[in-house]
Structure formats: structure tokens, C-alpha cells
Amino acid sequence: MRRRPKFLTSDCLFKIKDSNSIVNSMASTWEKIRDFYDWAVENGDKRTDPWFLVYSPIPIVVTFIIYLLICKYGPKYMLSREPFNLKYVLLVYNFALVAISAYIFWEIFFILRKKYNQITFLHVYHHGTMIFNWWAGVKYVPGGQSFFIGLLNSFVHIVMYLYYGIAAMGPHMQKYLWWKRYLTMLQLLQFFGIAVHTSYNLFTDCDFPDGFNLFVFIYIITIIILFSNFYYKTYIQKKTKKA
């Protein structure tokens, strides 16, 4: 009978077994992640899989991380620098977005102009999550019921970026921007419309996946809460304080 080496005490054996257990657990977890990733990329709508940035979530995740890094470290980078004059850049950008909504880069302009007060939790949460929402919508449930959200959102952004375009012309245009409050009301109306549309489809015979309906409903409620809070603080609380 072989004798156990003296240095292999019961404590040492326990630690070795524990280490092996951790390694096996990590390997199992990694395998599950790989299986989920494979399922996620292979079970999308085949019509949109060839589209740019649709097949895999990795480019979207990388974009999201870059977006957060810009929002966090951009103000620190600009701290000792003069704000950029981006008047004409913003004019072109905003009026282009009347037709094309690509607002993921809007924070970069805020940072370069040192408008940090506009980089709020609402702003980052809304823009940071929408990139994943639209990716999932285009990959898994394009067309059909999804058109309503896209149609409504596109219309609101036409109005919204028209406002930003006019604002970018300079302070002398402020007298034409009296309708900012109504723009926020239009955004809220959009969110309530989406909530009603989505909740209705949870109780009707609709082929659209209930899981997506439920997710959209819960998400849009969070947006309504945040935008309502913004509306209250911006248009009601400030007005009360001035009075």
C-alpha cells in the first residue's frame, strides 16, 4: 500500500479539490455562455442577419462600452480645455437627423462644448439602452407589430432634431424655441402610446412574442417615470420656485 506523501496533508488535499471544483465550475459557466451566444446569433430573423451590426451582439456591446467611457471620461478630458465651437457642425448634424436618427453620438457634442448638465442619467439610460432594444427588435422581431414603435419614434425625432437644429443656430434663436415644453409632452405622448399599444397586445390573439411585449411594456414604464420626473423638475418645480 502506497503511503501518502507527508506534504499532502488533509488540508492540502481539500484545497486541491476545492481548486479543481472552481476550475470545473468556471469551465461549465463558460460553456453555458458559449451555448447561449451560439443560440442568440443563430436564432435571429434570417432576413436581417446579413444587415450591418445585426448578426452578433458583440459590436453593439463594444459601442455601448465606448459610449459609457465617453460619457464618464469625456468631461475629465475637456476639464482643462476650451469648449469647442461646433455651431456649424451641429447645424448640419441636427438637420440631417430630421431625416436620419443617429443620436448615439450626441453626447460627444455635449462634451466637446462642455455642456455637462445635459448628460443626465435619463439621457445616458435612454440612449444607452435603446441601442440594445433596437438591435434585439431588428434581429428577432423585425416588421409586424414592431413598425408602430419605429414609426412613432421616427416622427418624434423629426420634430426633436428640428428643435435642436434651430437651437444650434445661436442664442438669438431662443425666441423661436418657446415650444420646448410641448416637445417633452410629445415625447411623453409617444411613450404612453407605445405602452397602450404593447399592453393591449398582451391580452389579444397576436403572433408577436409575449416576452418581447412584456419587456417593451416594462421598459417603456421606466422611460415614462424618468421623463415625467424631468417634466416636473423642468417645467413645474422651476416655475413654482420662480413664483
Distance between the termini: 93 Å
Q: What is the number of helices?
A: 8
Structural class of the helices, strands and pairings?
mainly alpha
What is the count of structural domains? 1
How many beta strands in the DSSP annotation? Answer: 0
What percentage of the residues does DSSP assign to strands (E)?
Answer: under 5%
Given the C-alpha coordinates, what overall shape results? globular
Radius of gyration: 25 Å
Low-pLDDT stretches are 101-105
Topology order in helix (H) and strand (E) letters:
HHHHHHHH
Main pleated sheet: none
Task: Look at the structure and give the mean pLDDT.
Answer: 78
Query: In terms of quaternary structure, what is this?
Result: single chain
Percent in helix: 55-70%
